[in-house]
Amino acid sequence: MKYLLIIALFVILSINAFSKKVITLGNAATGISLQFLGEGELVGCDSWSKVSDGALGAVDLGPLQDIRFDLIKELKADLIIVDPEFALFGNKEKINALGIKTHYISNNYSKNQTLKDIEIIADLLGKKNAYSDVKSDFKTQYASYELVKKMNKVNSKIIYLESNYKGGLMIAGKNTCPHYLLKEVGNKLDIQYTDWVTISKEEIEKLNADVIFISNKAVELIGGTDVAIKFFANTKAGKDDKIVIIDDWKMRDHGLSVSNTLLEIIGVFNNNGF
Questions:
Q1: Cβ 102 vs Cβ 95: under 8 Å
Q2: According to the model, what pLDDT value does residue 199 have?
Q3: Are residues 214 and 110 in the same domain?
Q4: What is the CATH number of the domain that holds 263?
Q5: d(C-alpha 169, C-alpha 182), whole Å
Q6: Which stretches does DSSP call E strand in 6-138?
């Protein structure tokens, strides 16, 4: 009986050790974490991440540029996992001030780094034994994209535009996830911007991009699709009818579903003859 009590106590302690209240900020952080979290363990996430399977029950903490820090504090999470994009909105200091253990995913968006990020998060969540299966699934999905890429060549100069949430547009620079995604499929534009930079209509025209990817939110900011087409009328992309509208959260996701986004991007060129 004594041994049974010891075993039962060990099981309870083991369960408690791996049961965490987790907050994720960003699509990659959320998508990866959900592979290892049990029901109810994801207590909060950003608005973009609410589209992820398994995030329905999490508290919506708002968009990355306007996170509800008061709600984060109320949730009393054990761990916060954050996408690198989040730091660009100037909120890193506010997160650190909460005194909650926080892990920031690397801003190296390569396939190999994503595999490392998956392993690190599995370890943080006490689920390293599940890493092999998740890694295998990721590599299988990514291989599908790599096969399509081998058969299709993108030879265009491309930019990605997003709303700066202050009434203007910003362009994705070298250190951003959208730039990495476009470069991965074959972007030929050697952009000089480092991070996200607010950009004017005249500056966009000077870049002379062959194709312009723009987020759905940025199109709303401009005034809708018809207005956006007129807005870019003097650009090479506008003249050639090569303006591509894409969901903003997809261009921020370099996690488990990044191969799907890459396939969607390269599909734009295949399906439209760009």
A1: yes
A2: 96
A3: no
A4: 3.40.50.1980
A5: 18
A6: 22-25, 42-45, 59-60, 79-82, 102-104
